[in-house]
Amino acid sequence: MITIYDLKPKFQNLLRPICCGLVNRGVTANQVTMSAIVLSAFGGLWIALSPDQNLPLFVLPIILFIRMALNAIDGMMAREFNQKSNLGAVLNELGDIIADALLYLPFVMIAGISAPLCTAVILLGIIVEMTGVISVQIGASRRYDGPFGKSDRAFAFGLLAVLLTLDLIPFAWIDYFFYLLIFLSCYTIMNRARRALDEAGPST
């Protein structure tokens, strides 16, 4: 199923010169991963401290794009420059979940946002990623199947931020927007689990 994650190879090709430059300067993949977490903490804190201001929401898509670039860069550094490590694997998986929580939880403080629905989307996002990780335990590859993975969540929250900033979405529609994200998240969980089970084959 099509997901924004499918664009990753082309995105990586654009970022490869930056990746090479960072490696030449002695920057490590783990440092890039931590930078993405710090950036997410900054963005989330800005929203939390100014939930009634438009500027943090307007800047959020830029923060999400930079975070996505950092996530792609740390992966390339690990694979292509022999920087893979157990610590890096842990930071990569935990970092994505932590960054999502830091960036998206402050949305519950924005007027008109349903805290239960927004929180449900974030929790389901964690389950989505854990489903992908658990697939490795049963002998399958790390699953990134869509339709609503990490990159798609970033796009959804970035879009919501822009719509709120420009006052282009009625508050009455926001709940339906979250209902859609909840449905897509649940479908993605089932899709990743099914694909993992199919790939792993019958248990012995």
TrEMBL record:
GO terms for molecular function: transferase activity. Coiled coil: none annotated. It comes from the Bacteria. Its EC number is 2.7.8.-. The keyword Transmembrane applies. Keywords: Membrane, Transferase, Transmembrane, Transmembrane helix. Gene3D superfamilies: 1.20.120.1760. It is an enzyme of class 2 (transferase). The chain crosses the membrane at residues 32-49, 55-73, 94-114, 120-140, 152-170. InterPro entries: CDP-OH_P_trans, CDP-OH_PTrfase_TM_dom. This is CDP-alcohol phosphatidyltransferase family protein. It comes from Kiloniella antarctica.
